[in-house]
Known about the structure:
Radius of gyration: 17 Å
Strand content: 35-45%
Structural class: mainly beta
Oligomer: single chain
Largest sheet: 5 strands, antiparallel
Order of helices and strands: HHEEEEEEEEEEEEEE
Shape: globular
Amino acid sequence: MNHRVILVLLIFVYATSPLFANDREDSIIIHQQHPNAVEPIVYYIKNDSCYTIEPTPFSNMRVVPFLGLKTEMSFDGQTSQNHLSQSLFYIYLSDTIQQTYNINNFRVVNLKMGDGERLLTTSINAYYYIHVGTYSKGMCAVAIDKGLYKIVPAQQMEPGEYGLFYAFSGNVPIKIYDFSIH
Length: 182
């Protein structure tokens, strides 16, 4: 059986599981909070409460010697203020921004730990290899209501620091919605 078919079947089973039973109530809460948002709104549910993940700007961009050069973005703090117990969250795109943003262009990336900061490599330019952009985790966006999507990872995410961003041209983030999985 083809790996894509298996992945689609797993996502379908996951999406129709009891974890999705409260989606309608969550959707009503989210639509009431931000009916005319002008940028994506990212949420997670914890202890039956809905929390917004605010975008985090990068604090520094630097070029690091690495068998050539690599570019890293840094984000303040050793860990995110958004602590999720599972890798499950929502993205809301209001009618106002659905023409600009495509849900399939969101990416989830792992942030490396630095000295009091979190790091994201955005390009590598080695003598034998050039890469611009970030390596992202596989995920599936399940539409649960108009403009509201449940983001389900293709595989369970390990505990650590992550970021969600919208991939404009070049697959490099402008801002990132950071979170920790514990």
